[in-house]
């Protein structure tokens, strides 16, 4: 049977965790005839979306995971990606050999549109957005969703076979797929991240690899040739591989040569796409994102002119090395999405100006010693806050930075940075940490930073 025509009316499904993706998949499966129960440990006052599901006739259990929630009459568990696998209902399902998936698996089963799946430790959102814009500029129908914007199950039913579904996918989402098969899968990079969830680097890598597990030689894998982990992973991939690289020529894919982005197919001469100097995005890491997006777009037969136009005009995604404002000759940049040390390091590499760095956040047991060399090279002052503040103070000492300050929050950090920075400097929020010790999301943290920066200018105008 065609997977899009699967008969869901025989399924009894528990959706664990509401939030955006949980609500979307519960509604869709209910619409398809499945018997759905939604469950979330949060109390009702923190789950306003529960009323919408109940109005549709979907039972919702809140405030706890009942002991009898999972039983042999349940056919499938669809869990929120952020729910760990050690919670009771997940463990009970696994013990009973009941499949546990994320909504990505459901979207993959239902999608008529070919899927482009993009994952990696850093750069997912920028690359996914770039691909969507390139395809649209090239005259293709393309919908961007997943870990960015709408949940996949919110959009999948509205897409036809002549459209592209461009999906940003996290390791949390990919760990819960079984039959998911993207036409094009891209792995941008892999560094140590989310080990509080995955426990081991091996599990983190294995989760990312699931993007390719169902691909065949007619599908495409786009991989980073400069990443040793990607090179090792390539040995177990059955699909056709296109590489991208900043540092070396590749047999097939996209790379940098003599200051140009060039593309090459196996056995053919390389062709120039665009001068690196014309790429609007700032930073070496964004150049990698541009290379990956170019490879994906070329694989979709996107016209080179549309790729060039997008690379010249697209200046970035909010909270990703986002320029905010210049005040008294000081440029302020919001890179709140830098939730690990590697992302923070890459953002610092993007600047030639002296940097007043604002960093800190959730303590995940990282010592940040790898940042000392880049601190020595780029950072004139560090302002830190949150659980990791004492660690950043120590790393600043290691780097010989004398201007190092601990403050209460991001707003106070901006005020302090404005006092320290001089004309020609950059003030950069690049936390190297998740936000959850003080803020609900990196978006909230970044928005507070921007508001605080604009407030500086407003005070000067009074």
UniProtKB/TrEMBL annotation:
Binding-site list for ATP: 120-126
Tell me which residues make up the Mur ligase central domain: 118-297
Does this UniProt record's set of keywords contain Cell inner membrane?
no
Specify the Mur ligase C-terminal domain's residue ranges. Answer: 319-433
Pathway in which this enzyme or protein is active: Cell wall biogenesis; peptidoglycan biosynthesis
- Pfam families reported in the protein's UniProt record: Mur_ligase_C, Mur_ligase_M, MurD-like_N
Gene3D superfamilies reported for this sequence: Mur ligase, C-terminal domain, Mur-like, catalytic domain, NAD(P)-binding Rossmann-like Domain
* A single GO BP: cell division
- Enzyme class, first EC level, given as a word: ligase
Recorded GO molecular functions are: ATP binding; UDP-N-acetylmuramoylalanine-D-glutamate ligase activity
Catalytic reactions of this protein: UDP-N-acetyl-alpha-D-muramoyl-L-alanine + D-glutamate + ATP = UDP-N-acetyl-alpha-D-muramoyl-L-alanyl-D-glutamate + ADP + phosphate + H(+)
Provide this UniProt record's keywords sorted from A to Z: ATP-binding, Cell cycle, Cell division, Cell shape, Cell wall biogenesis/degradation, Cytoplasm, Ligase, Nucleotide-binding, Peptidoglycan synthesis
Q: Does the keyword Cytoplasm apply?
A: yes
Q: What is its EC number?
A: 6.3.2.9
Q: Where in the cell is it found?
A: Cytoplasm
Tell me a GO cellular component: cytoplasm
Query: Which family, according to UniProt?
Result: Belongs to the MurCDEF family.
Q: Which NCBIfam families match?
A: murD
Q: What the protein does? A: Cell wall formation. Catalyzes the addition of glutamate to the nucleotide precursor UDP-N-acetylmuramoyl-L-alanine (UMA).
From the Swiss-Prot or TrEMBL record, give the protein name: UDP-N-acetylmuramoylalanine--D-glutamate ligase
Which gene is the coding source of this polypeptide chain?
murD
């Amino acid at each position: 049977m065609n997977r899009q025509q699967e008969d869901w009316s025989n399924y009894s499904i528990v959706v664990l965790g509401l939030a955006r993706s949980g609500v979307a998949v519960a509604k869709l499966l209910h619409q398809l005839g499945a018997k759905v129960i939604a469950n979330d440990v949060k109390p009702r006052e923190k789950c306003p979306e529960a009323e919408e599901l109940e109005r549709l006739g979907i039972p919702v259990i809140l405030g706890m995971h009942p002991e009898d929630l999972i039983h042999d009459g349940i056919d499938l568990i669809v869990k929120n990606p952020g729910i760990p696998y050690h919670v009771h209902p997940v463990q009970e399902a696994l013990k009973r050999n009941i499949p546990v998936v994320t909504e990505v698996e459901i979207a993959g089963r239902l999608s008529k549109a070919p899927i482009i799946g993009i994952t990696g430790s850093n750069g997912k959102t920028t690359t996914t957005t770039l691909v969507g814009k390139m395809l649209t500029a090239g005259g293709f129908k393309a919908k961007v969703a997943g870990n960015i914007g709408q949940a996949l199950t919110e959009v999948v039913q509205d897409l036809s076979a002549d459209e592209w579904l461009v999906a940003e996918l996290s390791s949390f989402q990919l760990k819960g797929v079984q039959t998911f098969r993207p036409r094009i899968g891209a792995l941008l990079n892999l560094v140590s991240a989310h080990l509080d969830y995955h426990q081991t680097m091996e599990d983190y890598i294995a989760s990312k690899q699931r993007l390719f597990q169902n691909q065949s030689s007619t599908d495409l894998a786009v991989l980073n040739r400069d990443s040793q982990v990607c090179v090792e992973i390539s040995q177990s991939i059955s699909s056709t591989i296109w590489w991208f690289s900043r540092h070396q020529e590749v047999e097939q894919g996209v790379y940098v040569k003599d200051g140009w982005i060039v593309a090459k197919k196996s056995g053919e001469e390389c062709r120039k796409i665009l001068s690196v100097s014309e790429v609007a995005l700032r930073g070496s890491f964004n150049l990698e994102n541009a290379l990956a997006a170019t490879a994906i777009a070329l694989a979709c037969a996107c016209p080179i002119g549309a790729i060039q136009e997008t690379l010249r005009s697209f200046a970035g995604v909010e909270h990703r090395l986002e320029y905010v404002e210049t005040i008294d000759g000081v440029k302020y940049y919001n890179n709140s999405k830098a939730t690990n040390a590697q992302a923070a390091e890459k953002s610092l590499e993007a600047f030639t100006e002296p940097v007043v760095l604002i960093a800190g956040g959730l303590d995940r047991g990282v010592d940040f010693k790898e940042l000392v060399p880049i601190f020595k090279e780029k950072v004139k002052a560090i302002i830190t806050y949150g659980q990791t503040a004492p660690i950043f103070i120590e790393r600043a000492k290691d780097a010989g930075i004398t201007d190092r300050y601990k403050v209460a929050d991001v707003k106070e950090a901006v005020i302090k940075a404005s006092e320290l920075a001089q004309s020609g400097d950059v003030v950069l929020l690049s936390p190297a940490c998740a936000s959850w010790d003080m803020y609900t999301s990196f978006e909230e943290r970044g928005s507070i930073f921007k508001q605080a920066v604009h407030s500086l200018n407003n005070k000067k105008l009074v």
